[in-house]
Design a protein that fits this description.
Helix content: 25-40%
Radius of gyration: 19 Å
Mean pLDDT: 79
CATH superfamily of the largest domain: ANL, N-terminal domain
Strand content: 15-25%
Largest sheet: 6 strands, mixed
Number of strands: 14
Distance between the termini: 21 Å
Shape: globular
Structural class: alpha/beta
Length: about 290
């Protein structure tokens, strides 16, 4: 697969029928994405919006809200969660809060809508886009991190160069939220720009996700969802149909040994960073058979 810039993608670099996401067992095409972004951008353009937040449960509507704000030239703020306290703390910075649900008891809340009409190809000023993320705050105060869509494009290009040939057109699943930079990068932006469909739902439990696997796939996940004693059985079931398993954390030793043995015949484990303990390889890597 090859990387296409976000601006080129929405300007027609891929066919209108190209599948960008999977939602409720339905394909969402590039034409539908373009129409929904254009429709919501037009709704927002009637307001004086300089800073907007996006808080969505669904990964597709998250992308629509983010791109709609970028389209009108607004800075994007991505709260780490939808808790009332978090949103109240950011309310003074926001002109609008875009959402796909009833979250957010703020006057500026706007529900994203699906378009009933098609939209012409469009271009974006990704270089001047500003997206503010926040650390989770689990170990202290939340910290703000600012990125542009250009940086996401560059990161996607590097990831695709490293691992794209192994992944092919495998669809992407995830147990990490798109509200965090890790989830947005690996679960949404990388597959979007590389041409792989991503599943819009992020799963908080493994069982529903595993039930959806029916062929090669890539899973983006975080650490420690199962206790070590059940690890080998878990990985046997998981990796049997995977092309890649991406994790943002280091496996405990017993997890890693199980995963390493299984990847020789079943797939890949990509280890992206280590926060807990020294790792045998400190650079990102992929283990394949």
């Amino acid at each position: 697969m090859s990387i296409v810039s976000l601006s080129d993608l929405l300007a027609g670099a891929r066919p209108d029928t190209h599948c960008v996401a999977l939602k409720d067992h339905r394909q969402i095409t590039l034409a539908r994405l373009r129409a929904d972004v254009s429709h919501n951008a037009q709704r927002l353009s009637a307001r004086c919006i300089r800073h907007g937040a996006v808080v969505c449960e669904d990964g597709y509507w998250f992308l629509v809200g983010l791109l709609a704000l970028v389209k009108i030239g607004a800075d994007v703020i991505l709260p780490p969660n939808s808790r009332a306290g978090t949103l109240r703390g950011l309310a003074h910075e926001l002109d609008v809060l875009l959402t796909d649900s009833g979250v957010g008891e703020v006057a500026s809340r706007v529900a994203l809508e699906s378009s009933e009409t098609e939209a012409a190809p469009m271009r974006f000023d990704v270089a001047n886009s500003r997206i503010d993320f926040f650390t989770s705050g689990s170990t202290g105060e939340m910290k703000r991190v600012t990125k542009s869509l250009t940086l996401f494009e560059r990161e996607a290009a590097v990831l695709e160069q490293m691992w794209g040939a192994e992944l092919g057109d495998a669809p992407v699943f995830g147990t990490v939220t798109h509200q965090h930079v890790f989830g947005m990068t690996f679960r949404i932006m990388w597959p979007l720009l590389a041409g792989r469909p991503y599943h819009s739902e992020f799963h908080v439990a493994w069982e529903p996700l595993l039930a959806l696997l029916n062929g090669p796939a890539m899973i983006v996940s975080s650490r420690g969802l199962y206790d070590p004693p059940s690890t080998h059985a878990f990985f046997t079931s998981l990796l049997a149909s995977l092309t890649a398993f991406v994790t943002g954390w280091t496996f405990a030793d017993c997890w890693w040994h199980s995963a390493s043995a299984l990847t020789r015949s079943h797939g890949a484990v990509m280890q992206l960073r280590d926060r807990d303990r020294p790792c045998r390889k400190r650079e990102p890597f992929i283990r394949m058979s």
